[in-house]
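[recover] target loaded
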């Protein structure tokens, strides 16, 4: 079985991420979305919320499962039969960062390669941080995120306004 891993912060998942999953779920037998718990990075959504939002947004993809991990990706993959790491590419700026990370992962996990998937032109400018910024300033991000994420962002905005 060809199992691939799609690691990322997904704070929150956007239509750009979903597009990558829709494309790659046709190539691999199973995709494990692995949400990174980064203690050094302040997230808007909790780890549990991020996992739940991805689960709700990938209901139409029956070979996608969602999990989370902290620490090194190499350690998380140690006991898994993963054949590829999936990462999305939007711009040349992404490429520089992603290339370094792929090379580092290749050093740490020799038998697993990173597969890069080009973003659809509709989502080249979509990032979790831009979506959060726009949504928390009251912007309409409904064309950029799955419906569950739109609701989640509205709740965060409401909570901020009440404090
Ligand atoms: P990280 O903090 O690990 O970069 P992200 O959630 O921001 O986590 O991104 C996870 C992966 O998804 C990265 O490979 C990133 O380049 C890719 N990605 C993010 N947004 C998009 C998008 N709009 N189109 C395609 N790929 C994307």
């Amino acid at each position: 079985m060809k199992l691939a891993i799609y690691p990322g912060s997904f704070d929150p998942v956007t239509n750009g991420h979903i597009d990558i999953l829709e494309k790659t779920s046709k190539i691999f037998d199973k995709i494990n979305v692995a949400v990174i718990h980064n203690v050094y990075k302040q997230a808007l959504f909790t780890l549990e919320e991020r996992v739940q939002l991805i689960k709700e947004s990938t209901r139409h993809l029956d070979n996608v499962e969602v999990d989370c991990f902290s620490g090194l990706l190499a350690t998380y993959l140690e006991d898994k039969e993963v054949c590829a790491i999936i990462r999305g590419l939007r711009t040349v700026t992404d490429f520089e960062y992603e290339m370094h990370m792929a090379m580092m992962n290749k050093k740490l996990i020799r038998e697993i390669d990173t597969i890069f998937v080009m973003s659809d032109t509709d989502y080249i400018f979509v990032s979790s941080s831009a979506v959060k910024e726009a949504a928390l300033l009251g912007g309409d991000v409904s064309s950029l995120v799955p419906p569950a994420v739109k609701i989640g962002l509205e709740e965060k905005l409401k909570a901020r306004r009440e404090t």
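[recover] notes: The chain is about 40% helix and 20% strand.
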